[in-house]
Design a protein that fits this description.
Strand order of the largest sheet: 3-2-1-4-7-5-8
Number of domains: 1
CATH architecture: Alpha-Beta Complex
Order of helices and strands: EHEHEHEHEEHEHHEEH
Number of strands: 9
CATH superfamily: Spore Coat Polysaccharide Biosynthesis Protein SpsA, Chain A
CATH topology: Spore Coat Polysaccharide Biosynthesis Protein SpsA, Chain A
Radius of gyration: 17 Å
Length: 258
């Protein structure tokens, strides 16, 4: 088992079947884990129907209610590590991240020496399609602000299209990752950077969702602004590294053990 894509969902019935089919149509050996936070629109039921079609490749974890993007991904990281996947991806359900770009992130980690590959909108060759000017302003401004506060040499620190090598996630102490929303993506990259893993930005085309409702809100933006300050301040007092006797040891909840 080499590659798995984690997609958290909440009310994504318009997109979920199509994104699943698009990823498997690549025929590049990806497995797919959907983590649904009790979507009332029936997203999980659509996934369950498709699990019969993609038996052994498509998996579903259901959680009760909205618990936050960060906790969904950490749940997925632990699930994937416990099953031996070597390359673990984050991806949105709404086609803002193009499935065809998965292989470019994988190549960066598998063959080009990266420990973390970030699908970046703000490096040469990357771009955003169909965003209004205010979203562009907040996003670019937030990226620059994050760089200035954290000194992290990443031009798109809030990007949610990422490939992690297994070793990176094994070494991050998830208990030290405190944010569950917008700032989660920043803190994960910050942790990997602090632990001296090699991060490479891969240019992608980011397209605004066509179907379903955006999850962006003023609260998310506020978390990002204040979160960056907290991440930098707390980094003086915390260590993101997991402390284990055996480097290959990974503590996982009982429900993930096989």
């Amino acid at each position: 088992m080499e590659k798995i894509v984690i997609i958290p969902t909440y009310n994504e019935k318009e997109n979920i079947a199509n994104i699943i089919k698009a990823i498997f149509s690549l025929q590049q050996g990806y497995h797919l884990l959907i983590i649904d936070d009790g979507s009332p629109d029936g997203t999980a039921d659509i996934v369950k129907d498709l699990m019969e079609v993609y038996d052994g490749q498509l998996f579903l974890e259901e959680r009760s209610g909205k618990q936050g993007l960060g906790t969904a991904y950490i749940h997925g990281f632990k699930w994937s590590i416990s099953r031996g996947y070597n390359f673990i991806f984050e991806m949105d359900a709404d086609f803002s991240h193009r499935p065809i770009d998965l292989e470019r992130l994988y190549t960066a980690c598998r063959y080009e020496g990266a420990d973390v590959a970030v699908g970046s909108r703000y490096v040469e060759g990357g771009r955003i399609d169909n965003w209004p000017w205010d979203r562009m302003f907040y996003s670019k401004g937030g990226a620059l602000y994050t760089q200035l506060i954290t000194w992290m040499p990443i031009k798109d620190p809030t990007a949610g299209f990422v490939c992690y090598k297994r070793e990176v996630l094994q070494n991050i102490n998830f208990k030290q990752i405190k944010f569950v929303g917008y700032a989660f993506q920043i803190e994960m990259k910050f942790a990997a950077w602090k632990l001296k893993f090699k991060i490479k930005e891969v240019p992608i085309v980011f397209t605004d969702r066509k179907d379903g409702a955006s999850k962006m809100s003023k609260g998310i933006i506020k978390e990002g602004v204040l979160g960056v300050l907290k991440i930098q301040f707390r980094s003086v007092f915390k260590d993101y590294r997991r402390r284990v006797r055996n480097p290959s040891e990974v503590a996982v909840p009982n429900q993930f053990k096989v």
